[in-house]
Specification:
By secondary structure, the protein is an alpha+beta fold. It folds into two domains: 16-90, no CATH class; 103-170, no CATH class. The chain has helices at 16-29, 50-57, 85-90, 129-144, 157-170, and strands at residues 65-68, 80-83, 103-106, 109-116, 119-126. Strand 3 and strand 4 (109-116) form a beta hairpin. It is elongated and about 65 Å long. The mean pLDDT is 82.
Length: 172
């Protein structure tokens, strides 16, 4: 058996680049792995060889991990990059936690938010994810017609009274 020339194998001591490649292969082979194999994400034929992966991606920079620019795309040269944690956090699927776009857990409740004119608009916090999803759906329809999505927020007297009181406190 010949030793690979790249120096990233078990005999010479595994590197973070090799571990990244091996983890990528493991995730897509496991059909029970949520977010990868179970979604049909694959590794291109070329990258099934570590030598080719290393030639295309280079050595993993410190503080970086592999990131698929299109989360629904496969692991392949045109879709992967080395990214820091901040970029990874911004490049995630939005439906992962709740099953609804624009709805995410917030403490023991569910929050809804939408992007409107390049700004994130908080639509409120709700007891159930279905309530939050309904508000998001209404806000999305408004935003698609270039109307303010905040008008989709249901009137809640106690919450509105608290907001009014806070605004009064801020007045000079």
């Amino acid at each position: 058996m010949t030793t690979p020339k790249h120096g990233h194998n078990r005999r010479t001591g595994r590197t973070k680049t090799y571990d990244t490649w091996a983890g990528m292969i493991r995730r897509v082979r496991d059909r029970d792995c949520p977010g990868y194999g179970s979604r049909g994400i694959t590794v291109c034929e070329r990258w099934k060889s570590f030598d080719n992966f290393l030639a295309d991606m280079g050595t993993r920079p410190s503080g970086m991990t592999i990131d698929r620019e299109n989360n629904d795309g496969n692991y392949e040269p045109g879709n992967c990059r080395w990214a820091n944690q901040s970029l990874q956090n911004r490049n995630r699927r939005t439906k992962a936690m709740s099953g609804y776009k624009g709805v995410h857990p917030n403490k023991k409740k569910w929050a809804a938010s939408i992007s409107f004119h390049n700004r994130q608009v908080h639509l409120g916090t709700y007891v159930t994810k279905d309530e939050a999803a309904a508000v998001y759906g209404n806000a999305r329809r408004l935003a698609e017609n270039d109307q303010d999505p905040r008008t989709a927020i249901p009137y809640r007297p106690k919450a509105h009274a608290r907001m009014a009181a806070k605004q009064e406190e801020r007045k000079p």
